[in-house]
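step=predict obj=Helix-turn-helix domain protein n=119
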Amino acid sequence: MVSSFGKFLRNLRMDLGELLLNMACKLEVSPAFLSSVENGKRKIPENWLSKIKKLYKLNDAQVAKMKEAFYDSNNEVEIGLENLRENQRNLAIAFARKLETIPDQDIHKILRILDKEKN
């Protein structure tokens, strides 16, 4: 799954007509690592924000967009469902869809149930 930051990088490269290999060289990483970051499979090195800003002479609007994409990407969670039973997959999907609407008191109840499972 392409991350928000990955989309930002890919769009930046495309806008500049730059190949993945060239951007990777400028960022001093392998093309495979850069591709993994774009695809959300690797963490984004924190020094990339300042490095990309400087290398590509980004304006304030581009920097703001890059920072937003960075923070969005760092707050994304991917859950592999392929090894789960059907009822487990259904629970995970239903929970993800309703998460924002679950009242705090119910969240506390759910956390207590999950904590009991750990012990």
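step=describe
DSSP finds seven helices and no strands in the chain.
step=end
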